[in-house]
Design brief:
Number of strands: 4
Number of domains: 2
Order of helices and strands: HHEHEHEHEHHHHHHHHHHH
Structural class: mainly alpha
Strand content: 5-15%
Shape: elongated
Largest sheet: 4 strands, mixed
Radius of gyration: 31 Å
Low-confidence stretches: 387-392
Distance between the termini: 29 Å
């Protein structure tokens, strides 16, 4: 066992000294997560820019723009008519709202007024959603006009000034908008709206599995060059050599995870001290299972290229079935197939501890599966691993 540990320590030392390996193992997952986080913004809220040409510049056109700008996720961009036409012509924009002259004057006099959508084709999916939001805001303003008109008709002849009526009606409707009697809230079902909790566990497990399975090419290369055979001429036994390589893979994957989770702890504050330790323990057992699978790949591959491609394909299948980038519905064909992916159990276990406030007791099944895969993988790979490696 002592000699096996010495092999492990040497392999880890070489890994930490290899800047290329470190960059792949540590920087690439960080960059991947940063790109995903930047693309989706960490929010499930619809976001869009409303491009508007305001040729009226009156009170009611200004009110329409202000109400749009107050909606979460909507940013208003004011353009001139020539700028809007040019961008529509170049397809830089697919939909623009034009507010014509006299818009506010017509509304003030109680006459119908309309704004115009100019669009290319169907305006695109974002444009269609944005158009629906703008119509909703316009309809709210229309309701305000109808309410004000009805109140004035009811109070006609009472001697109350119209300005006072307008002020009271506007204040009442504004208070209702700020604290509506009927409201709609967002509730995420079957997942999490927090992008960090949703994607980070999957990205970590993906790169741990990828690094460990692809690193099997190193063992294949050593076997082809006769390095392993020369080591066996020393006092090392085949079992010690095999187990040392296995522990080196486990240590490598675990070091990678400690660094990534430490960064997540410092930057996103997504762990409690207890959940941090529990998450590391889950990944340690997962890494043991992944390393055993990597040893199987090393045992069956005859060339480094074969080991690399087997590792890549195997990792991608496990990642896709593991629900790393999208949720897999329970009861579906894909959901049934996902049961064969160890990433499924790793991702679920980490999300249970990190996002749902669970503990190791809630992840026992996943830990048992990882332990079983590790033991079975070691036995299978040891049987496939030649006692005296060599030859092509």
């Amino acid at each position: 066992m002592k000699r096996a540990l010495l092999i492990t320590l040497n392999e880890v030392r070489l890994y930490l000294q290899d800047k290329g390996d470190l960059a792949f193992s540590l920087l690439l997952p960080v960059v991947t997560f940063a790109l995903i986080y930047g693309a989706f913004g960490g929010s499930t809220l619809f976001t869009a820019t409303a491009s508007i040409v305001n040729e009226d510049n009156g009170a009611y056109s200004t009110l329409l723009i202000e109400r749009l700008d107050d909606i979460n996720g909507i940013k208003v961009e004011l353009l001139t008519a020539s700028e809007a036409d040019a961008k529509l012509e170049r397809s830089d924009l697919l939909l623009v709202l034009f507010i014509p002259p006299g818009f506010s004057e017509a509304l003030a006099e109680g006459r119908p007024a309309e704004a115009i959508f100019k669009q290319r084709g169907n305006g695109g999916q974002e444009g269609q959603i944005l158009a629906s939001i703008i119509r909703s805001v316009a309809e709210d303003m229309n309701i305000d006009f109808r309410v004000s008109s009805q109140v004035k008709s009811f109070l006609e002849g009472t001697g109350i000034p119209e300005g006072e009526i307008d002020s009271v009606v506007a204040g009442t409707l504004g208070a209702e908008r700020d604290n509506p009697t009927l409201s709609v809230k967002e509730e995420v079902v079957g997942g999490t709206g927090d992008l960090i909790n949703q994607y980070l566990p999957g990205i970590v497990t993906m790169y741990v599995l990828f690094a460990l399975t692809v690193s099997s090419q190193v063992i294949v290369e050593e076997r082809r060059k006769g390095t392993l055979e020369r080591l066996l001429t020393t006092r090392l036994t085949a079992g010690e050599l095999f187990f040392g390589k296995y522990l080196a893979s486990v240590a490598r994957g675990f070091v990678q995870t400690v660094v990534l989770f430490s960064l997540a702890y410092a930057v996103f504050q997504m762990f409690t001290p207890a959940s941090f330790v529990e998450s590391l323990f889950i990944v340690l057992i997962f890494t043991a299972a992944a390393a055993a699978l990597g040893m199987i790949i090393a045992s069956v591959s005859r060339t480094p290229d074969a080991a690399t491609w087997i590792g890549v394909v195997f990792t991608m299948v496990m990642v896709m079935l593991g629900g790393t980038f999208f949720e897999i519905p329970e009861g579906s064909v894909l959901g049934t197939m996902s049961k064969i992916s160890i990433n499924t159990y790793a991702n679920n276990a980490l999300r249970t501890v990190i996002a749902e406030g669970g503990n190791l007791g809630d992840t026992v099944m996943a830990l048992v599966i990882f332990a079983g895969v590790a033991v079975a993988g070691l036995i299978i790979s040891r049987l496939l691993f030649k006692a005296v490696p060599g030859g092509k």
